[in-house]
Amino acid sequence: MFSLDQLRGFVAVAEELHFGRAAERLLMTQPPLSRQIQKLERSVGVRLLDRDNRKVALTPAGAAFLSEARRLLTLADVAPDRARRIAAGSAGTVRIGFTAASTYGTLTRVLNAAADAAPDIDLDLYEMVTAEQIAGLQSGELDLGLARPPFDTEQFASRLLHTEDMVLAVPDGHWMTALDRDVTADDLVQEPLIMHSPTKARYFYNLVVRIVPVGQQNVVHTVSQILTMTWLVAGHRGVAFVPESAQGLHIEGVTYLSLRGVTDQQAELHLLWPRDSDNPALQTVLDALEN
């Protein structure tokens, strides 16, 4: 295996095309430099330089090896600094899970704040429902989640990120759009309902059933994504309870109506991370989001 000193010697000779000038540049004498090149060529298994008493030239293999040698030396130079920055939390990677509904404004605010405070930290994104995020945080596949409650507060630390009201999405021209008041539970008795999945969207399912009694005879579709629900509403398949931020989707054919008496049933979105995380970059991102 070749050494970094051998690579530096080869690069110097390749750039100077003269052993004497290369040795002078490296603050060494010519004989040990020549031995370094010979050892390098034996390690690589090909001749890298053509030399005689009058000139030095790169072989085709040497020309190809030169670019790789420069790359390896650059990596060797920057690796210690990068390791120090990763240990300090100013570089590295934070893997973020997020629910689809959190992309309606909240996710970009989180990413922008983190990127402004720590531009050398890579932010990898994974779209997951809350249950999948919790599994990812437990297994170490994720560092941070944008998730809905409930979660194990002994295992996870959390920070409330955003709250919003639930609204009723109805097709444009629906009879409830003509009401001169907020929608009540009585208005929904005969309405076909597009409902959240009780397994894949359990948080929103539980939130909705606290808002209004849901008769299974009224449920025409059960889905897990807010975007899908809203498109189904636009297609006159029924009405749906969605977080207020869904209005940011700007899907044509949908009107959003306020609900009476549900101010205590707001949807919550939390930052969620393992209490025992050993990723220094995570703390840097959390500090950025607190400011």
From TrEMBL:
SUPFAM superfamilies: Periplasmic binding protein-like II (SSF53850), Winged helix' DNA-binding domain (SSF46785). Residues 2-59 form the HTH lysR-type domain. Transmembrane segments: none annotated. Pfam families: HTH_1, LysR_substrate. Keywords: DNA-binding, Transcription, Transcription regulation. InterPro entries: LysR_HTH_N, LysR_subst-bd, WH-like_DNA-bd_sf, WH_DNA-bd_sf. Belongs to the LysR transcriptional regulatory family. PANTHER family: HCA OPERON TRANSCRIPTIONAL ACTIVATOR HCAR (PTHR30346:SF0), TRANSCRIPTIONAL DUAL REGULATOR HCAR-RELATED (PTHR30346). This is LysR substrate-binding domain-containing protein.
